[in-house]
Design a protein that fits this description.
single chain; alpha+beta; 4-stranded antiparallel beta sheet; 7 helices; 16 strands
Length: 374
Amino acid sequence: MCAVAIAILLAGCASGPRSGGGVAGGRDGPGTNIPPDLASVPDAEPRIESIRASGGTSKPYTVLGRGYQPITDDRPFRESGLASWYGRKFHAASTSSGEPYDMYAMTAAHKTLPLPSYVRVRNPANGREVIVRVNDRGPFVDGRVIDLSYTAALKLDLLRGVAPVEIERITNEDIRTGAWRRDAGTAYAAAPAPVPVSARVPPARVASAQQVRVPAEWVAPIAAADSDMPPPASTMPVAPQTPMATANPPGAETESAQWPPSTPPRQAIVVNDLAPLQAAPSPPPLPAGAPAPSTALPGFWVQLGAFREREGAESLQNQASRGVPSLASQLRVFSEAGTHRLQAGPFTSRNAAGEAVTQLRESLRISPMVVERR
């Protein structure tokens, strides 16, 4: 029993026992001589590295009675779950790939990804992202999907403990084509709020920047009035001028397809004050079988993934529609606060959502999670 307890403790703190240097025992932690400016350490730079098809780190293995089958091809991989980090207790120890662990480098451990691999890790709570090089196995705790180095956890603001993350593998094909690169680089901090127009445009140009261009033929000349003040808006006559006739473009038909369309002469109108607005009646309930609206309805939803770019969510939506046709009509992309989330639902119970999770996990080899909207 003591041996089992020690093994579980080691697996819970990080990815498991290692050989080599580092602290021999005791609790894990950040270390005593932390280098300065760790927040400026650059992300791991993805480069094409061969994937072993057999032997070494590609062989199936068992930890704490559970078997794991490493991935041996260049497939895409997305996963959501909890992230942890490991520090001084394993610093300088040998990793599963044989490389010494450096808690101040941008590395990570994963249970099944090829060693080495490159992964983009995102903290959905603040929008921060990093790219790490996976060179170790772990963490062997239910619900945890990745073990980060101390520096990677620092840059994601995850040093306080385990927290939800979203990970996406950068394949060799992505590296070969450059598809992994972001236009503005990896997001270290949450995107700033949009700058108001008045702050971007000099005051003298704000008015002109907000003007709407109108075709010249629609603009009626305004005669100078005796008074400098315009009449009240409620009684001001508005007399739009009929647009000037324009010759039809070559090849255009007459009468039946005029260009531009003919407009009958219009009389001067008077703009009157409108009656107070009345609240619109509540929409009738959706009939059974009707598609879900763009806003999420209350209930249980299964989240397949979250992306900074909508194209990523839509690509996964198409893949999920083909892989699990029974859920195709329930897949929706919700965009909020710069994040695009692919979710399926709503389901009436958590058990029903759990069945969908099982289908998606078996068909797409991803790890969806159940969320509740109220």
